[in-house]
Amino acid sequence: MTLPVSIDSVGAACAHVLLTPDPLAKLMAARAVARNWRLGRLAHRFDAAMPDRPARPDKPELLPPNQMPKRGRIGSERARIAMLHALAHIEFVAIDLAFDLIGRFGAEFPPEFTGEWMRVGADEAMHFALLDRRLRQLGSFYGALPAHDGLWQAASETAHDALARLAIVPMVLEARALDITPATIVRFRGAGDEMSARMLQRIMTDEIRHVSAGTTWFGHATKRLGVNPAKHYQILVKRHFRGALKPPFNDSARRQAGLTREFYTPLAQ
User: Fold this and answer.
1) Angstrom distance (rounded) from CA 77 to CA 42
2) How far apart, in whole angstroms, are the C-alpha atoms of residue 264 and residue 269?
3) CA angle, residues 103, 107, 110, in degrees to nearest 5
4) What percent of the chain has a predicted confidence (pLDDT) above 90?
5) How many CA atoms lie within 13 Å of 182's alpha carbon, on the beta-carbon side?
6) Quick check: 73 pLDDT over 80?
7) 3-state class of 29 per DSSP?
8) CA geometry: angle at 98 spanning 81 and 154, to 5°?
């Protein structure tokens, strides 16, 4: 996929991704935008407003988190499909989260910030493609089941503040994935689904880098402000995150991503 010739800036390119509803078209747009940035075809200019909400396909039906059907035990194929569908939805929304972060806040950071989050956005598109392909191998597809909109609620809550966005999305939500994915991989292996288990391991390796991108740029911004990173993180999480940080934590993976215990253990419940 190539971008329209009228899209020649980072801001316009990010808005284009967010305003593309079709899943396949969105992942192709994400890849095209990341490629155009890498090839020097996009000016580091932020001349387009990001939408309050991204465009969404007709399916999946979006439900409040407390109305989502139970997935059941992961040993059944039906439950594995439900889990993979939930993960595919997370990655689909993560495409928009990466490009919204760039388009909304990129002007506050050097071009290296844009480059790093372009790579993250391309990763999220690849993850979605892997999960959707696996769903199809199992006789399903993205959109076949309902999904919830909790991830984008976090984006809306932090739309005014780059530091809040970095604290909540990569450093809380994506870090939580580092905590729970190893057990999910074990359950898929226990059910004899080695293909899905290997795919989730690959995705988790990338997610460590994504959390690292969050901690790196959070550190960059807090240094510029002259505030303590861990303490400021705790202030922002208390202010903007609905819920508690619940152990057990994958301290090893979090540490690889630069998210050390001093950040999150004071918030644990």
Assistant:
1) 44
2) 10
3) 115
4) 90
5) 12
6) no
7) helix
8) 75
